[in-house]
User: What shape does this take?
Amino acid sequence: METPPAPAASLTIGQVAERTGLSVHALRFYEREGILAAPVRRTSGGGRRYSESDVEWLNLCIVLRASGMPIPDIRRYTEFVRAGAGTEPDRLALLRAHEARVLGRLAELQRSLDIVRYKVAVYEDYLEQQPAGPGL
Amino acid sequence: METPPAPAASLTIGQVAERTGLSVHALRFYEREGILAAPVRRTSGGGRRYSESDVEWLNLCIVLRASGMPIPDIRRYTEFVRAGAGTEPDRLALLRAHEARVLGRLAELQRSLDIVRYKVAVYEDYLEQQPAGPGL
DNA sequence: AGTTGATCTAGAGCCCACTCCAGCTCCTAC
DNA sequence: GTAGGAGCTGGAGTGGGCTCTAGATCAACT
Assistant: This one.
């Protein structure tokens, strides 16, 4: 198999891309944007080597992005984490604010869904038995 | 009050902007993009005059946009509506496909929310009693 | 007649989050 | 040693959805 005897977990950018689903472009982009918690180690030749905890961090970033957090906010969170102990209240505040935004977004999506479903129902009724026409 | 005796409902672009929350820029943009069901009437001087049904249509467009339907898809839907009777199955298919996408998006958002809430809980616990530290 | 304010058009500009390119280096295999 | 493939950097390009500008027109008010 491919599994080495568990060395100090060192992944190339390609391997990380494969695991996370991010492109290598995106990985370098994220690094430039300053949203990696720890500086990525490099080989003598300059190649990036990611640790498992880098991958975990990226997975968090992916969740935050997927839930609509803009990169500047992720950067602020990252900076708090890098700043270490004492910034926990700031991180919590940031996460809570994000939680609230996600809740709002969920509610909005749900409202939209209700309307879309209503229109779907109208067209279904119309296509079953043509009484009048579904309007617009 | 402001209610006139219900004339042939004619609104300026500014009034429509106010009612819909869209900018006048966006209204003209949507028109250029071909996502108005009916051609907007014009005054002799070239000014747009919207009807109430234009506003209703725009409200639907807003819902579709808010739920993530891209403008080209809205345009396709609009074209079916303009094409009139016989396109109902196409419209239904389009709406059902959108419904499915919205459901998927809702599920994804919910998963992200769970993770964000987990992290919030971790930080809350940490800040109540400092046993170890919240990790990242 | 003049001023203000809304509207018009065509087209440029902006923001975001990537994405891709050129030109180079590095490692591995043959 | 050389070909291939992954990786490097800095910077340009892309796509979506608006947003804004310039310069003109128009209606209403004073």
